[in-house]
Structure to design on (961 residues):
């Protein structure tokens, strides 16, 4: 559908006159959705706070919502091929008929939104946005459809042509900084909530209050137990607010779990050795460190990163974190242009040795980094759009992901350390390096008899095949 | 002291329909770990079929029945002083759990039953005998007039031990031949299980040093069930109980290959949409492409290949002269050509470890070989089983020198740890745990359902190997403490 009438607005300020507003977090189209548990439409939930405080009648459809005991629904849309590898392409989230049923119900009760906001979390998920807008457009043709967040900001032209929205918001929506997320629109309270120490009106005092409101409410149904910070590079950007908040949590003895999902760098903990203890005491259960995408692709940078990890992990273990469990997770970015895969494979092996657990994060290029004829959905970092440029096949990247999966796999909650100093890692290295596992390479252990395939016949005699 | 009976000295009498009542029990399990998959008490369920034919009324309690998720409940075990029971081995401690129905729950259920004339209790692993003892005591207390009879693998392999320790009236040693050929009676479950265990044959001509098949089957002779009988059992279970998944539990199903082929063809002809498995594996020398194609057509979803070890000299020591890496690779290639996908768990390889006199480097070579060849490694921790050659050879060490009873000979408790430490003082129990961990994590590296191969010559494989190589050079250059040097040299590590 062409939406040539779409209006591009830089820095959109929402209208706050009392009105009916639908917030719609669309389904996701992707090959994998590994962090679906942590997917929450932060912008929409802040908007809910803003609009409801102005007297708007706000409703939410989060196509990714499911009850705590439910699995996220997925349906295979197509099979992509990269060389010899077939990759399933899925639609994740509530099915179209379920979304339709919800909208029909509101329509029947006479509830029609004046405005619909959609959050386009990332560019290559645009098909879900298109689906959601067409669905809403059919039901509520008079509603004004406003598309915000990363997709319209980074692929504005694409959004104008393909999304079907009336207003394409480029950049952040005004007035949302420092606002808490309104989770009360969900049928049941989500297990976790994002917190944001954004610049502007929010102060650490507000944050503590937001925390208390969510974590300390007497209503068990509305009590949130898990929190993650939405801010990138949170310690560097908001050093005082972050520490104040952690100290407040410790002082108030709040029984909550905090998660760092890629916004704490190992050097943050090197620069401030006390920080690890603060994080641990405040209730940070898992530290997934930020990956190295901002660092140059040089051996020196990697050595420096390893050293940072070394000291950061040491501080964390001293603070009480259990090494080689999922509590401490190193991250390495893969799929960057000009990377040498051999170096990356070696690097993730070394990072896993130091941190214990590891994840690899596919590099997500911005639309202007990729060839202009590459469809937006194929610019998905999980498809490694720079594989060909780097002279490597998708299969090679699949091997790299496999290596990371082995390095990150847990047995009795612990990873195996291939570079460890114990007897077993030593024997494993010895076998792999010398290839002694291969009977063809090791004189004396190979079988010296040719294979005799056959069986016993009914008379009990051996018959060769 | 119970009386040991056998097929020759005891026979199941026939009674007018409904005049004799038997209670059949599969006891709970005391162990550190328990895998509920394919763990139906098939022998007891065949006895049920036999007893019904003889006119008995049957009550049946399977303490190990799984819930809808396939999970058996577990609770920590406590001693008489209320202290949690653990097994401490060198530098590791394993907590012991009571898996399955608690004795209190069992008692509660038993109290609702009419007093039986006979109680038949199955006892499977020799190292699980203690829970059988406790169930015998319970039934003796509740049903003092009933005859309590224990049969199964444990009483067959260790009849004197069972007679002395269980408190049962009768200890049945060996097979009840009248039941061996019968189908399992799954109608005894309130909710039919999602799978059934099948046997097409019994017996194996080989005599591997660690295997008890000869004792269990009363010799090396292989006996088969008729194809019609097998198919009727499948058909009944499919049509009446809705069961599609069948697991073949055989000593060596392919020894009478033509019979197995006939069974496969009959299943194909039936057109039933079955899922077939043989979790104990097939002798690799007897597998070829034609047979594997038939198996695939019949509904086999997975193939399990008993590699056990990569070393031919160890195979010879274990009296596995019929096994070799060549036949393993031949079977593997045949399976791939027949349509089973490697590196996806459709093809799996067993690796055996925890044996006396083993070298860890051989176990690791075997593990990495299996990882490279098929992608899915199934660790098999060795338990010395009474009646086997290994057990006989080491019984003085295990029972006298170490002073252990059968429950301590559980492979999970590393019964040969101290023995192997004599030739390798640096060896620790935690090394075995780490070895298990290695086998487990190698299976985890699946991306798009394909397990990575860390030993191949791909870009990633080579880079990984090079990283390990650099570390090895570093290790060699650094000063190793004396104990490690000793340990490494005794494990045959190539430091130079």
């Amino acid at each position: 559908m062409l939406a040539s009438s779409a209006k591009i607005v830089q820095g959109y300020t929402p209208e706050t006159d009392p009105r009916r507003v639908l917030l719609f977090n669309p389904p996701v189209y992707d090959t994998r959705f590994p962090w679906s548990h942590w997917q929450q439409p932060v912008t929409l939930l802040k908007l809910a706070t803003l609009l409801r405080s102005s007297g708007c009648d706000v409703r939410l459809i989060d196509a990714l919502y499911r009850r705590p005991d439910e699995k996220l629904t997925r349906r295979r849309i197509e099979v992509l091929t990269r060389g010899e590898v077939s990759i399933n392409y899925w639609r994740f989230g509530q099915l179209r008929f379920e979304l339709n049923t919800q909208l029909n119900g509101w329509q029947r009760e006479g509830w029609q939104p004046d405005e619909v906001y959609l959050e386009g979390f990332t560019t290559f998920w645009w098909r879900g946005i298109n689906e959601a807008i067409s669905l809403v457009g059919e039901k509520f043709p008079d509603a004004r459809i406003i598309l915000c967040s990363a997709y319209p900001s980074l692929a504005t032209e694409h959004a104008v042509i393909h999304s079907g929205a009336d207003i394409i918001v480029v950049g952040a929506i005004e007035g949302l900084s420092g606002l808490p997320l309104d989770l009360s629109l969900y049928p049941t309270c989500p297990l976790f909530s994002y917190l944001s120490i954004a610049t502007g009106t929010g102060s650490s005092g507000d944050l503590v209050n937001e925390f208390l409101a969510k974590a300390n409410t007497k209503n068990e149904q509305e009590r949130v137990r898990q929190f993650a910070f939405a801010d990138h590079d949170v310690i560097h950007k908001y050093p005082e607010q972050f520490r104040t908040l952690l100290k407040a949590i410790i002082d108030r003895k709040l029984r909550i779990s905090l998660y760092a999902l890629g916004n704490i760098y190992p050097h943050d903990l090197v620069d401030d050795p006390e920080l690890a203890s603060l994080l641990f005491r405040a209730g940070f259960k898992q530290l997934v460190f930020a990956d190295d995408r901002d660092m140059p692709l040089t051996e020196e940078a990697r050595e420096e990163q390893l050293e940072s990890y070394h000291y950061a992990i040491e501080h964390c273990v001293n603070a009480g974190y259990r090494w080689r469990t999922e509590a401490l997770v190193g991250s390495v970015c893969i799929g960057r242009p000009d990377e040498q895969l051999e170096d990356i494979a070696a690097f993730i092996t070394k990072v896993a040795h130091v941190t214990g657990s590891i994840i690899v994060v596919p590099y997500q290029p911005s639309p202007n980094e990729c060839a202009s004829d590459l469809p937006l959905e194929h610019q998905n970092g999980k498809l490694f759009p720079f594989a060909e440029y780097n002279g490597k096949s998708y299969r090679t990247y699949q091997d790299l992901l496999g290596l990371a999966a082995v390095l990150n796999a847990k047995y009795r909650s612990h990873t195996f350390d291939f570079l460890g100093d114990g007897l077993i890692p030593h024997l494993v290295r010895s076998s792999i390096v010398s290839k002694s596992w291969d009977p063809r390479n090791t004189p004396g252990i190979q079988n010296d008899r040719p294979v005799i395939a056959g069986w016993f016949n009914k008379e009990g005699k051996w018959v060769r095949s | 002291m119970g009386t040991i009976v056998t097929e020759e000295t005891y026979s199941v009498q026939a009674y007018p329909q409904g005049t004799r009542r038997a209670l059949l029990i599969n006891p709970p399990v005391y162990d550190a770990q328990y895998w509920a998959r394919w763990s139906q008490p098939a022998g007891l369920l065949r006895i049920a079929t036999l007893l019904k034919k003889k006119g008995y009324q049957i009550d049946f309690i399977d303490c190990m029945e799984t819930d809808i998720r396939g999970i058996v409940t577990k609770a920590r075990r406590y001693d008489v002083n209320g202290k949690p029971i653990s097994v401490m081995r060198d530098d590791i401690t394993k907590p012991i759990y009571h898996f399955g129905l608690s004795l209190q729950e069992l008692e509660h259920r038993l109290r609702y039953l009419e007093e039986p004339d006979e109680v038949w209790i199955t006892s499977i692993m020799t190292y699980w005998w203690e829970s059988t003892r406790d169930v015998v005591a319970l039934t003796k207390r509740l049903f003092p007039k009933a005859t309590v009879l224990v049969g199964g693998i444990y009483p067959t392999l260790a009849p004197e031990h069972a007679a002395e320790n269980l408190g049962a009236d009768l200890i049945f040693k060996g097979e009840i031949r009248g039941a061996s050929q019968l189908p399992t009676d799954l109608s005894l479950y309130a909710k039919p299980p999602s799978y059934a265990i099948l046997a097409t044959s019994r017996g194996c001509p080989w005599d591997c040093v660690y295997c008890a098949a000869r004792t269990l089957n009363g010799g090396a002779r292989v006996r088969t069930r008729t194809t019609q009988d097998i198919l009727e059992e499948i058909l009944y279970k499919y049509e009446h109980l809705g069961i599609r998944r069948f697991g073949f539990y055989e000593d060596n199903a392919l020894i009478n290959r033509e019979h197995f082929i006939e069974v496969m063809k009959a299943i194909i002809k039936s057109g039933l949409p079955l899922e077939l498995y043989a979790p104990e594996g097939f002798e690799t020398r007897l597998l070829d492409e034609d047979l594997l194609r038939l198996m695939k057509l019949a509904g086999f979803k997975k193939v399990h290949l008993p590699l056990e070890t990569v070393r031919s000299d160890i195979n010879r020591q274990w009296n596995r002269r019929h096994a070799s890496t060549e036949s393993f690779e031949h079977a593997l290639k045949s399976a791939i050509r027949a349509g089973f996908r490697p590196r996806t768990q459709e093809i799996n390889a067993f690796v055996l470890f925890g044996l006396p006199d083993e070298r860890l480097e051989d176990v690791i070579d075997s593990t990495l070989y299996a990882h490279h060849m098929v992608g899915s490694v199934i660790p098999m921790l060795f338990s010395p089983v009474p009646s086997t050659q290994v057990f006989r050879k080491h019984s003085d060490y295990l029972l006298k020198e170490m002073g252990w009873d059968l429950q301590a000979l559980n492979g999970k408790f590393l019964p040969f740890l101290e023995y192997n430490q004599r030739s390798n003082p640096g060896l620790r129990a935690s090394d075995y745990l780490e070895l298990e961990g290695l086998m487990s994590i190698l299976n985890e590296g699946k991306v798009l359902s394909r397990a990575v191969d860390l030993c191949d010559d791909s870009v990633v494989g080579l880079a990984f190997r090079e990283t390990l190589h650099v570390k090895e050079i570093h290790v060699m250059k650094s000063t190793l403490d004396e104990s490690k040097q000793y340990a490494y040299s005794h494990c045959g590590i190539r430091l130079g």
